């Protein structure tokens, strides 16, 4: 016998051939009535047969059907051991939340359904071509989630369980579009940091630190083994995953004090049960997503995001959620206004000033604790409805005097020795500690459409006493992240340089994250004296003078794509006013005004090495074109169907007219 067949097919087992070809079927009778048979669509009737075929008791078929969607990944044994790994810890344990929610639904007489759309890991794909699918995946997953919801026409409500960078935003976008349905988000929680060791952000710099002689191979191996101290939950820092959980709660889509809970622990599991009760309550009382997601709710989410100092990636996700909900899409002016008005109150990784992991933010009171301070400042709309069945104001009244708040905050102090008021600070305390507002939007002759920087994450040592970061330096230009990382490891990036990474926006890479660069610069001694400019985006854990989302992107003809090595660039970021500028101001020995620089750039060709990455998938090329037609990154990289259709129709008409001209008799004369 052929060795391949023998290996693949394995040994013969005669018992496997004892096959039966029919079965009695489930016992009992479907709870049908004449009215149901006369008026229900055949799909509804056949669905009942499918349900008992899967083992549901016939007498329990008529309960309210609740769909539980999640981003579950991997296959866990009953004891939690891995049978097949997921892509990340964030989706490894969320099946436990699905189970608890399902048991709660059935305990209330409902019929739970479950479906899954797993998600990638931005940490796993850093520096790889996997990153080219990261942001586009969000739109794809939201589409599939919506299709799954609509494909169960008998559902009465939806519970969405998600945790990480793209899966949770996709879930929120999908549920936001279900205007007439009761729906709720169950944040998937966080993983714990090791008792002794590093967080999941810093550990991603072991290659760069080893190249600079800061750690040994053995140290890297030891630290890397222990970094994910518990098997489930999002990373321990306030990156995109944690920021998305915070925003879900701030929007009123998730229950109070549900963001950032410790994965796998009883308080985390209880959130799923509470959420099941909430969606049942919403259905009974006629409350749907359109009642929760309003312009005021979106504004509240922006305010809370600013108070936390959340990831700049939420500037892509909150507008997309607003679009799906039919709300007004916030623009740059809105973000600037909010960030100027709202003080940052949370001391957390990676922003500081003290680098508390996200579990401590949860223990200090999480989102509702921050909202108590914001309420006193008059920065929240307290009349908005929430999935907790009350207005935001009533929800905060409950939180302020709750046993949960008292006991959780007390435990942080008694067990970890951490004062909760040093993690979530009052505005007065935050001002004394020097916490500054979060996001600034520099413009200039290099960024005529704008750019984004997490201004709060610039190292205070390089900020002037007046709160302004100033850097005039020469550009070192790269058209691939790999080349830029190699330059750092080889010592070719030095203090005072301005590192320019171009062609990595939507059209070049699907707008990849460049955390390899930002993390390396953060943990190398000269890194705080280097400014990074790119048309790509950053991981939520990124820190430093890192300016991304530069528009227009290089491949769309943006001025950043015309820079050359040695060009002089003037960067100014005011952390107090959140104003900033990026200007090309010199070449060689010649320095000139920003206006003159703009004229020179306009006359320059694009960088000769500028091109879309050769590994860019066709799927991502299509995403880039669709989101560009929809308004691009400043509208959240959404699919605006009306705009896309209008663009396609105009293009088809232009092509038809062009063909007609070439085929007309006069054109051939």
Automatic annotation (TrEMBL):
Q: Where is the Dihydroxy-acid/6-phosphogluconate dehydratase C-terminal domain?
A: 439-579
Q: Which GO terms describe its biological process?
A: branched-chain amino acid biosynthetic process
Q: What class of enzyme is it?
A: lyase
Q: Which InterPro entries match?
A: Dehydratase_YjhG/YagF, Dihydro-acid_dehy_C, DiOHA_6PGluconate_deHydtase_CS, ILV_EDD_C, ILV_EDD_N, IlvD/EDD_N
UniProt xrefs under Pfam families: ILV_EDD_C, ILVD_EDD_N
Q: Which Gene3D superfamilies match?
A: IlvD/EDD C-terminal domain-like
UniProt keyword terms in alphabetical order: 2Fe-2S, Amino-acid biosynthesis, Branched-chain amino acid biosynthesis, Iron, Iron-sulfur, Lyase, Metal-binding
Tell me one GO molecular function of this protein: 2 iron, 2 sulfur cluster binding
Keyword presence, DNA damage: no
What EC number(s) does the entry state?
A: 4.2.1.82
Q: Which GO terms describe its cellular component?
A: cytosol
Q: Does the record bear Plastid in its keywords?
A: no
Any idea where the Dihydroxy-acid/6-phosphogluconate dehydratase N-terminal domain is?
A: 88-394
Superkingdom, taxonomy of origin? Bacteria
PANTHER family for the chain: D-XYLONATE DEHYDRATASE (PTHR43661), D-XYLONATE DEHYDRATASE YAGF-RELATED (PTHR43661:SF3)
- Name the family: Belongs to the IlvD/Edd family.
Protein name listed in UniProt: YjhG/YagF family D-xylonate dehydratase
Q: State the species of origin.
A: Paenibacillus rhizovicinus
């Amino acid at each position: 016998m052929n060795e391949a067949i023998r290996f693949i097919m394995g040994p013969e087992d005669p018992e496997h051939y004892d096959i039966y070809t029919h079965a009695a079927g489930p016992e009992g009778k479907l709870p049908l009535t004449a009215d149901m048979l006369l008026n229900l669509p055949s799909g509804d009737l056949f669905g009942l047969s499918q349900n008992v075929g899967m083992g549901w008791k016939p007498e329990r078929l008529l309960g309210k059907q609740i769909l539980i969607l999640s981003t579950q990944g991997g296959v866990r044994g009953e004891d939690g051991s891995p049978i097949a790994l997921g892509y990340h810890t964030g989706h490894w344990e969320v099946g436990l939340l699905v189970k608890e929610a399902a048991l709660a639904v059935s305990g209330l007489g409902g019929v739970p359904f479950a479906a899954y759309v797993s998600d990638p890991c931005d940490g796993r794909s850093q520096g790889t071509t996997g990153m080219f699918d990261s942001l586009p995946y969000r739109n794809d997953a939201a589409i599939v989630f919506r299709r799954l919801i609509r494909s169960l026409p008998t559902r009465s409500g939806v519970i969405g369980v998600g945790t990480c960078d793209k899966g949770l935003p996709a879930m929120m976008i999908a549920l936001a579009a279900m205007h007439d349905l009761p729906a709720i988000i169950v944040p998937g929680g966080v993983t714990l940091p090791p008792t002794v060791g590093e967080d999941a952000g810093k550990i991603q710099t072991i290659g760069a630190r080893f190249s600079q002689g800061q750690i040994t191979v053995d140290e890297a191996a030891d630290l890397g083994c222990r970094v994910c101290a518990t098997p489930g939950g999002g990373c321990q820092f306030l990156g995109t995953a944690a920021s998305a959980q915070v925003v879900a709660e701030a929007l009123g889509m998730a229950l109070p004090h549900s963001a950032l809970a410790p994965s796998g622990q009883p308080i985390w599991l209880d959130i799923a049960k509470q959420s099941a009760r909430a969606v049942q309550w919403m259905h009974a009382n006629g409350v749907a997503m359109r009642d929760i997601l309003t312009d005021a709710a979106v504004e509240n989410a922006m305010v809370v995001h600013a108070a936390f100092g959340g990831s700049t990636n939420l500037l892509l996700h909150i507008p997309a959620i607003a679009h799906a909900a039919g709300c007004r899409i916030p623009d740059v002016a809105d973000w600037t206004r909010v960030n100027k008005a709202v003080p940052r109150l949370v001391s957390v990784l990676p922003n500081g000033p003290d680098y508390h992991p996200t579990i401590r933010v949860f223990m200090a009171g999480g989102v509702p604790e921050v909202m108590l301070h914001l309420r006193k400042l008059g920065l929240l709309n307290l009349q908005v409805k929430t999935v907790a069945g009350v207005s935001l104001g009533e929800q905060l009244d409950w939180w302020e005097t709750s046993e949960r708040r008292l006991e959780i905050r007390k435990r942080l102090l008694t067990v970890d020795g951490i004062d909760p008021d040093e993690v979530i600070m009052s505005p007065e305390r935050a001002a004394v500690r020097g916490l500054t507002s979060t996001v600034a939007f520099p413009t200039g002759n290099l960024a005529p459409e704008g750019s984004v920087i997490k201004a709060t994450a610039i190292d205070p040592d390089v900020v002037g006493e007046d709160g302004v970061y100033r850097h005039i330096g020469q550009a070192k230009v790269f058209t691939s992240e790999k080349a830029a990382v190699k330059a750092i490891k080889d010592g070719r990036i030095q203090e005072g340089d301005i590192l320019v990474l171009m062609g990595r926006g939507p059209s070049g890479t699907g707008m990849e994250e460049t955390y390899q660069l930002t993390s390396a610069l953060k943990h190398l001694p000269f890194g705080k004296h280097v400014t990074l400019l790119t048309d790509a985006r950053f991981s939520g854990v990124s820190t430093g003078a890192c300016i991304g989302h530069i528009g227009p992107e290089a491949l769309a003809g943006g001025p950043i794509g015309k820079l050359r090595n040695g060009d002089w660039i003037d960067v100014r970021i005011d952390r107090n006013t959140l104003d900033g500028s990026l200007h090309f101001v010199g070449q060689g020995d010649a320095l000139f005004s920003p206006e003159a620089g703009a004229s020179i750039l306009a006359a320059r060709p694009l960088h000769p090495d500028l091109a879309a990455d050769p590994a860019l998938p066709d799927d991502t090329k299509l995403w880039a074109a669709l989101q560009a037609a929809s308004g691009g990154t400043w509208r959240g990289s959404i699919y605006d169907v009306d705009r896309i259709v209008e663009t396609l129709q105009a293009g088809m008409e232009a092509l038809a007219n062009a063909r007609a001209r070439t085929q007309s008799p006069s054109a051939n004369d």
